[in-house]
Amino acid sequence: MPSVKIPKKSTFVDMTPFVDVAFLILTFFIMATKFKPPEPVEVTTPNSVSTQELPESNALLITIDKEGKVYFTVLSEKDKTIYDEVINTINSSRNLGLTDAEKRNYRKTYMVGVGFGQLKQLLDIPAEQQNNLKQTGIPIDTTGGDLTYWVQAAKSAFAGTRLQYLVKGDNMSKYPVFKNVLGALKKNDVYKYNLITAPEDAPSGTELYEERRRAR
Amino acid sequence: MAQIEDSGGSHKKGPGVKKAKKLSTRVDMTPMVDLGFLLITFFIFTTTMSSPKALNLNMPKDTKNEEELNKAKESGALTIMLGKDNSVYYYEGQLAPDGSNFKSATFATIRDEIINKKKEVMKNHIHDDKCPKIWAENKGDKNSCLDRDFVVVIKPDEDATYKNTVDMLDEMTINNVKRYAMIDITPQELEVVHATEKSLGK
Hints:
Largest sheet of chain B: 5 strands, mixed
CATH topology of the domain at 72-199 in chain B: Nucleotidyltransferase, domain 5
Strand order of the largest sheet of chain B: 5-4-3-6-7
Number of strands of chain B: 7
Strand content of chain A: 5-15%
Order of helices and strands of chain A: HEEEEEHHHHEHEH
Structural class of chain B: alpha/beta
Oligomer: heterodimer
Helix content of chain B: 25-40%
């Protein structure tokens, strides 16, 4: 019986264009992105239509996590002696009795989220391992709490330079904590703040949307 | 393609002459694709696309002196209260003692309320002796003082989240509200908010 011969086709697919596409996307991601900075606490910020860039240096960062715990960070890229000044002021004004090694460790400590009582314990831990310690948040109440002293110390250390105050709050944190943070800043005669937000577009049809469209 | 086909041995060679085995130059690209996509996945997860932005917030100095406080015209005031579970409440002017002008809204509808109130204030505006100063600041634009009396007061209560607060401040920028303030909720307002939340089963 004559059988129809089906020609055998190769199942080998040419992958070259696929490789091209993969590496093109890869190149795009490498170019277009920036590495996430190390963050001991995860904070999801709200969105806003603001387009102002954040300062990277000469700023104080107050972080509020989703449980309402408050953390304090001094951002000073160039002048690392600011850190020494801040911790020395805190040490002497609050009589903490920190050793020199502990004070040096503060330079590497990204954020402080403990009360003055546990500060010595936090600074005893090497900076790389501090993330493992469960920080309880800086005690804060309607009168400002410990945060007032941190802001005060940082403000005097930065005296003469322009200092910006950043507040980075989590979506789920409650308003009273935010109000207390502002209270602590107000006690130091600080009335201008920058809230860290994720960018979003102005909703269409609103005044801001029209204004931006005209400007374009 | 990057491949040399075996021509099928067209010329015969003598016995004893071994035919050189021709190997295909075709390379299997599959592992390379795997690697490529693995790296893409890695970069997607470890990087941030958009850098965060700063939202400016200016607060007034706390003052105990009543005379120093900025008085808002009742006709141009819109008070927005933020409560539990993303709820929004508002009233115009003063809160009536019986709470009759107390209304509830959502984050989706509050924008229209702000726009409507702003339009109403602008329509009812009558130029007076304070207006020429505003015109001068805005290159003589006589429309610039129309919303002079429009002021929004934001009052988050203790159940409002930080997101609600920032969203409402953002709404001020979106709707070009020039005068707004964020202050504490009064006990009277808090009572009405709680009563409303209770009736809604929150």
